[in-house]
What we know:
The protein has helices at 13-25, 68-77, 79-85, 93-98, 106-114, 131-137, 150-198, and strands at 2-10, 28-29, 32-43, 46-54, 120-128, 143-149. By secondary structure, the protein is α+β, with helices and mostly antiparallel strands.
Amino acid sequence: xxxxxxxxxxEVESEAYxxxxxxKQSPILEDTFVKQAVLVKKDGDDIKDLDxxxxxxxxxxxxxxxxxxxxLVGVLGGPIGVLLGASYGMLAGGSVDALDALDNASLIxxxxxxxxxxxxxxxxxxxxxxESILDKSLENYKTITARFDAAVVAAExxxxxxxxxxxxxxxxAALRKEKSDEFKSKVEKHRAKLKAFFAGE
Length: 201
């Protein structure tokens, strides 16, 4: 059995809802088990969570990742997703440095590249032996399906979240420095005024 992250992008939004309903009703298809699935829509830089389900059970190999899909959606629609979706050449110094840890995050980048603005997709954590079983359940819909190693995506999500924290830390430090410089400027301005006041100017 293999633990995959399955991304199915639908041409018709209503069909995505239909497929999601079927997965909710029958998460086990022969030797295929859909543990978690989320229906998302890309709206500009944002990734909207339209629907979600979790069977609450471990997969057949005991592979439970808890809120992995929620974390992945957060990364895709968060600052890392925005930065990875943008041109690296347009990024400035510190941001590029902060993304060094994600140089090998190819799977997340591929997911971002595949999901275009306005498109709807089902992202599912699946334990499967035969990929054709889940594919067959989607064959009546206009959809493109890609698979990614779930363990690799989970590691990339964890790394991305750590990088987001570092970006936030750098942003706070920059704001504090800016505030500090601005405050010093105000102090010097008031010092000059006080000197002039006491000098009778």
